[in-house]
Amino acid sequence: MINYIWFILIFFGVLVGLLSGNGEVISKAIVNSSSSTVTFIIELTGIMCFWCGVMKVAENSGLTEKISKLLKPILKRIFKEVAKDEKALGAIVMNLTANMMGLSNAATPFGIKAMEEMDRLNRDKGTASNDMALFLVLNATCIQLIPSTIISIRAACNSANAGVIILPTLVSTATAAIVGVICCKILQRYF
């Protein structure tokens, strides 16, 4: 559906531009935006490689393992059924740890594994369990200790201080995660 909306917006925008005699302006805008997009992607790729390297160092130094040890007791309290299964809880911990460190690409396989493990434990196949729903909420609202993607985008756009968003990001994602867990726990009682 969104593809149709974008097509309609672009089609009518170009049509109105051509009918109003602004064809040359449209051509220049397309060329300029294309070249600036390529430049932006190249800059972003370099910065993302840097952050992936930093995160790999954090992983190899044991920082992610320390974070996962801190998370396990908390997760055992909020996940009722999964807390008894080490494989499922381990996959959840690894997913959330990778997300907290800004490694969303590395977190995806752990998230898939966590869902597979929770589905293995699920009594009602084909229907998401309460723990599965809670995991999705935590995955979507995960607390960001290092928002590397946003920092990379800000740096690629020549921000004066790309890292200034670390504290606001930490506060907003922590708030979102807490509210998400509270909402899940309330809704679990009724559904």
From TrEMBL:
Q: Which Pfam families match?
A: Gate
Query: Could you name the domain of life of the organism this protein comes from?
Result: Bacteria
TM segment ranges: 6-26, 38-58, 88-112, 133-153, 165-187
On whether ATP-binding is a keyword of this UniProt record, the answer is no
Q: Does the keyword Transmembrane helix apply?
A: yes
The record, for InterPro entries, names:
Gate_dom
Q: Which UniProt keywords apply?
A: Membrane, Transmembrane, Transmembrane helix
Nucleoside transporter/FeoB GTPase Gate domain location? 42-154
The name this protein goes by in its record: Spore maturation protein A
According to its UniProt entry, this protein's organism is: Clostridium chromiireducens
